[in-house]
Amino acid sequence: MKETIVQAIMRRFVNSTERREEALRDVLKLMIASASDAQLGEQIGKIPQLPDFLYEKWATLFAERLLETVPPAQICDMCAGTEEADATLALVYVMFMESERMEGIVAQDLRAWHEQAYCKFDNIVQ
Asked: What is the DSSP letter of 67?
């Protein structure tokens, strides 16, 4: 069941470049209402794609917490594989990601990833 939940989240939030760009465009439109489509596209191009292992970690934490706290019958309903079930899982996932605990974990993971990906040569350059 855990793997089913993780895969549903990965399909919904990670495996679609089109969905990613659409979501980023929607957020940027709210932040920069006066921006043209070309300007939004330029900004989207500057936002790095996070590695899948981060999304998988967060989806796994979500699945584990869901399995700990939600009755099995409701989990079965959310894992039915229908569009409605996937949308329900996605909504619950977004709420989970907005929790104070996950905000801290995400910030820590992003810092660690940034240091590993971008700062490993700092000592050589200095």
From this structure: H
